[in-house]
Design goal:
This protein has 349 residues and is of the alpha/beta class. The chain has 16 helices and ten strands. The protein binds S-adenosylmethionine and N-acetyl serotonin (ASE).
Length: 349
């Protein structure tokens, strides 16, 4: 080995090694309701005040708030009453994304990361060794049927739906407007979940109707918690896209569906869609694409590990989706990278 410099400093390695300290600090501040309390307060609060309101130890809260300020999740200013203490308030980012009631809240995503994904990631080593998801170890449930395991309780199902919901309020516009979808009048959002993407779709294309197709319990929860009937453009269809025949439509949206499944199952689904699709219709895939040389983006590389611990699928390159689409019979595959987390691919019949 060539001579190693004496003063070599492993900055990145130290940062990665302790990265979970940052995640857990954020999770805990959210879970305890720090950002909500500061949002509702008329003035900045001291650690003593926050700890009283949230019923925690004063010392623990003092350290937590100080770390949040270090992470730039909170602003500090000198306490006009006390001498050496400070008072805390939300930054703009925290008030928009970390409070429960904000329309762009990431609260539920954080909750799911903290209470479900973090537990699966505890078994990442096992997942890499075995090449499979870790529901059995993490939660003691059978993973024979993926969504039976994911929806192991109504509460877990709702949490997952809330996680799915939150990202489209932030980057849904990009994925539905990348391609001009205005010629597609009848749209089926297969695995449409909470309906957040369906909402984006009808907002940008006033002439289309979008049907949210999902498992019966998901559709019911969607109607109870996310979309109250009244929106003429949004419809619902309870079904199983592997077992049931698919209705005819102009456009099928598959957002974050294929990444849950193996190539075999993905092809099965795409072939079925191709059969039901009207001539001139198409399919829109929305996924986090890996680059063709597999060197990035880091988010997609890490998401692919998450698919390993949580699903039966993986993140793929544009060319891999294109191969699946053409094998299923689709033509003119058009891949568009948005530069944000999720990209879109449109293919036509
Ligand atoms: N498309 C949504 C999004 O991007 O926010 C949700 C994606 S989520 C990862 C996968 C969705 O597929 C869930 O809503 C799940 O209930 C649904 N799903 C899974 N298996 C299904 C099946 N066999 N038939 C219909 N929907 C299914
Ligand atoms: C799925 C998507 C997700 C299945 C499980 C999931 C997400 C988290 N858990 O289809 C959203 C994407 N985020 C990550 C880290 O993969």
């Amino acid at each position: 080995m060539s001579e190693v410099k004496e003063d070599l400093y492993p900055k990145k390695i130290l940062e990665y090694m302790e990265g979970y300290l940052v995640s857990k600090t954020l999770f805990t501040a959210c879970e305890l309701g720090v950002f909500d309390l500061l949002q509702d307060s008329e003035r900045p609060l001291s650690a003593a005040e926050v700890s009283k309101c949230l019923d925690t130890s004063e010392d623990g809260m003092d350290r937590l708030l100080s770390a949040c300020a270090g992470l730039e999740l909170l602003n500090t200013q000198p306490n006009t009453h006390g001498q050496k203490t400070v008072v805390y308030s939300n930054t703009q980012m925290s008030s928009v994304f970390l409070t429960k009631s904000s329309p762009r809240s990431l609260f539920h995503s954080i909750d799911y990361n903290s209470n479900t994904m973090y537990l699966c990631w505890h078994y990442l080593t096992h997942a890499v060794r075995e090449g499979r998801n870790q529901y059995e170890k993490a939660f003691g449930v059978s993973s024979k049927d993926l969504f039976e395991a994911m929806y192991r309780s109504e509460e877990e199902m709702l949490k997952f739906m809330q996680l799915m919901n939150s990202i489209w309020n932030i980057c849904g516009k990009d994925v539905v407007t990348t391609f001009d979808l205005s010629s597609f009048k009848s749209v089926y959002d297969l695995g449409g979940c909470s309906g957040a993407l369906a909402r984006q779709c009808v907002q940008h294309y006033p002439d289309c109707t979008v049907t949210i197709f999902d498992l019966p319990r998901v559709v019911q929860m969607c109607q109870e918690q996310f979309i109250s009937s009244g929106d003429e453009q949004i419809r619902f269809h309870e079904g199983d896209f592997f077992k049931d025949t698919l209705p005819e439509a102009d456009l099928y949206i598959l957002a974050r569906i294929l990444h849950d499944w193996t190539n075999e199952r993905s092809l099965e689904l795409l072939t079925k869609i191709h059969k039901s699709c009207r001539a001139g219709g198409g399919v829109l895939l929305v996924e986090a694409l890996l680059s063709e040389d597999n060197r990035g983006p880091l988010t997609a590389q890490l998401y692919s590990l998450n698919m390993l611990v949580q699903t039966e699928g993986r993140e793929r390159k544009g060319s891999e989706y294109a191969a699946l689409l053409t094998t299923a019979g689709f033509t003119s595959v058009n891949i568009h990278r948005t530069g944000k987390i999720y990209d879109s691919i449109l293919a036509l019949k």
